[in-house]
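@channel sequence for tomorrow's demo:
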Amino acid sequence: MAEEERVEPTLEAGAAPAAAASASTESAEPLPKKSNKKLFIILGVVVVVLAGGVGGYMYTQKTEAEKKAAEAEANKPENILKKQLTDRKQNAPPIYIALDEMIVNLPGRGGEHYLQTKIVLRTADSSTESKVKQFMPVVRDKIITVLSSRQMQELATVEGKTMMAREIALVINSIIAPQLTAIYILQQQPATADLQNLERIGAIPKETSTGKKITNEAARAAAEFWNVTEMDLPVQAVLFSSFVMQ
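structure tokens (generated this afternoon):
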């Protein structure tokens, strides 16, 4: 009986470590599951980031390609003219651009004379003013050339002033819209406004976008479409707010 009493504590003591080991094993089992879950989350985030980066790059490349294609199409001579003519045919209220005062010498009988004048440009396009300012040194030089080429007796008549005003408008338009003005000039001289001249200045494309030469019927239709009047030009008229000759 005494031996049995000594054995029982030994068995109980041996069972305790086994139970502790079992409990320790059970508590350690969920750890790999948590680690796997974190790994999946990290991998998912990486995949999303990579997919977003690739998608963003492809979208940017597509947008840039579309932008370049649109710019190339808009810069075609016929499309530039079409936009200009469309903008000018909207019957927008006139916009007036005042230029600085100009004083020039005038040739005439009885010695030298001078003209002191202020010019106002009439336009229907808000962008014309910025174009005129951009080329202002050239514009002023050409205007002075036109003004000083007239004699005092010529400018004393209404007809003389009107003709000079039209010439000034034409000179300014040839600077800020040379292609459109060239078409206008050609159309004022029907004998020279043929298809070859219109093709030369780019009013009518020689070929289609596929490289095929356009038909004569299509060329004639395009020539009719590009019918430009004074009101289609950037500067529609030149007005004088002051005009003094001595």
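heads up for whoever presents: The first strand starts at residue 95 and ends at 98.
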